[in-house]
Design brief:
500 residues, alpha+beta, Cytochrome Bc1 Complex, Chain A, domain 1, six-stranded mixed beta sheet, 18 helices, 12 strands, 16% strand
Length: 500
């Protein structure tokens, strides 16, 4: 051992000596700043000006395969290249969320997500957990306002087990009363945690303001009184009404084979209702209506103000959804803790950061089946509220008459990069394909999506701004020490045509 240490010390000493000699050599040959400017050849591709680039050669992804089973369930798969990881992701995406709950039962969809994992006739909650852990797999779920998802990440050799588990919990869950009672406490604790996450709370308030007295305005978790009263009958009724073949997509990605997945789903997914009612029919029967309202929660105890300003957006399949995505990217985002802002491509981020008007700002664009919301969310100090409100509204309305081709091009490139980053890994690919099958009825190829984005120019942005911003209603949600926040009527007046 001593001999080995001695050799190591000698090698380290030799490396250090060589490094010192190189350092001395660099010092001896140091040049002035002008003399160290790199050759032009190293700078010819470095430019602050955004450029149009043909990305099509890099958008050749593995083929998406789609099959529709006789019972109406759609199966979509996208295999990874042979050289990639031997992992697979598979999940069930269902056209069902809090929007479709019966009156007085808000919170049922989320409660059901919890109860699905509490045991079936074949698997207890503990044996299910052990089975997944023994495989080194991951089983998870989430509920949104329009969709519910259950998915698993497994090694490719265990894909059959994953499909069996998903089929079992979705068709054979028992919902024992003792588990329902215990889960009430779990969800109530989750609600307490969410109440501490201001970003979650402010967007719940924003939805309540924008979709007043409509299920889209309800929170996903539901009110406490509903959590205390949701019963086994409510859960079973929600499954029979909404977990139907017509509204279900099984999506798999990674090391998967399409025919194998189709055969597994066909043999195991047999008990779901074949009710032909679609989510579109339910939405048409009760469409969402944007309400230009506000929710203000004044609290002097809060250290910061949380402010969200929203305008009416569009549904997933609306032709204007892509330009509004570009507008979201134009608005951009910034956070004081990150430190990037002065050099941001977003005019709003630059103004906010350089003037110290906010702690953070983030643009958002949320789509639903028939409607959407887009706007700006900020956190700031109370004394900055009036000036921040002025800057944000000024930037929102600026898009109607003053936006350059350069900044739109930059936003298009940023949006395309963001979309590609969101499909990194088999889980993300399965999620992307499952969600698109529910929202578009197909998986939109990236070359087509990018072509739609590239078609958006400055004139398109101005047209969209005049259509969706000027003379349109505004929804406001604000929390904290908000005495300095302008009245709702002020926000509304600032977007009228006479202010341009």
């Amino acid at each position: 051992m001593a001999h080995l240490l001695s050799n190591v010390k000698r090698r380290v000493a030799a490396v250090a000596s060589n490094a010192r000699m190189r350092y001395l050599s660099l010092v001896a040959n140091s040049k002035t700043l002008e003399e160290t400017i790199p050759d032009y050849r190293f700078l010819q591709y470095s430019s602050p000006e955004p450029r149009l680039v043909d990305h099509s050669p890099f958008l050749l992804f593995p083929q998406v395969c789609l099959s529709t089973l006789p019972n109406g369930i759609r199966v979509v798969t996208q295999s990874a290249p042979v050289t990639s990881s031997r992992m697979a992701s598979i999940g069930v995406w269902i056209d069902a969320g809090s929007r479709f709950e019966a009156p007085g039962t808000n919170g049922t969809a989320h409660f059901l997500e919890h109860m699905i994992f509490k045991g079936t006739a074949r698997r207890t909650a503990r044996s299910l957990e052990e089975e997944i852990e023994n495989l080194g797999a991951r089983l998870n779920a989430y509920t949104s306002r329009e969709q519910t998802t259950f998915f698993a990440d497994v090694q490719s050799k265990d894909i059959e087990v994953a499909v069996d588990v998903l089929a079992d919990i979705l068709q054979n869950s028992r919902f024992p009363e003792h588990a329902i009672k215990r889960e009430r406490g779990v969800i109530l604790r989750e609600m307490e945690e969410v109440q501490g996450q201001m970003e979650e709370v402010i967007f719940d308030h924003l939805h309540a303001a924008a979709f007043h007295e409509h299920p889209l305005g309800d929170s996903i978790l539901g009110p406490e009184e509903n959590i205390q009263s949701i019963s086994r009958i409510d859960l079973l009724k929600y499954i029979s009404s909404h977990y139907t073949c017509q509204r279900m997509v099984v999506s798999a990605a990674g090391a998967v084979k399409h025919d194998e997945i189709v055969n597994l789903v066909q043999s195991l997914f047999k008990k779901f209702s074949r009710d032909p009612t679609t989510a579109d029919q339910l939405v048409t029967a009760k469409p969402a209506i944007f309400t230009a309202c506000e929710v203000r929660v004044e609290s002097e105890a809060m250290p910061q103000v949380h402010l969200a300003i929203a305008l009416k957006g569009v549904g997933w399949t609306d032709a204007n959804s892509i330009p509004l995505m570009v507008i979201q990217t134009l608005f951009g985002s910034w956070n004081k803790t990150v430190g990037v802002g002065n050099c941001s491509g977003s005019e709003l981020a630059r103004k906010v950061s350089m003037n110290g008007m906010a702690e953070s700002m983030m643009a958002f664009n949320t789509n639903y089946r028939d409607i959407g919301l887009f706007g700006i969310y900020c956190t700031t100090r109370p004394d900055c509220l009036p000036e921040l409100s002025r800057i944000v509204i000024q930037e929102i309305r600026r898009l109607a008459y003053q936006v350059s081709e350069e900044e739109v091009m930059r936003a298009r490139n940023q949006l395309k990069s963001c979309l590609l980053l969101h499909i990194d890994g088999s889980t993300a690919v399965a999620e992307n394909n499952g969600r698109q099958m529910l929202t578009y009825g197909r998986v939109v190829p990236f070359p087509e999506l990018f072509a739609r984005i590239d078609a958006v120019d400055a004139s398109t942005i101005k047209e969209m701004a005049r259509m969706f911003i000027i003379n349109q209603g505004v929804a406001i949600a604000a929390m904290g020490p908000i005495r300095g926040l302008p009245e709702h009527s002020w926000f509304q007046s600032q977007l009228r045509d006479e202010h341009l």
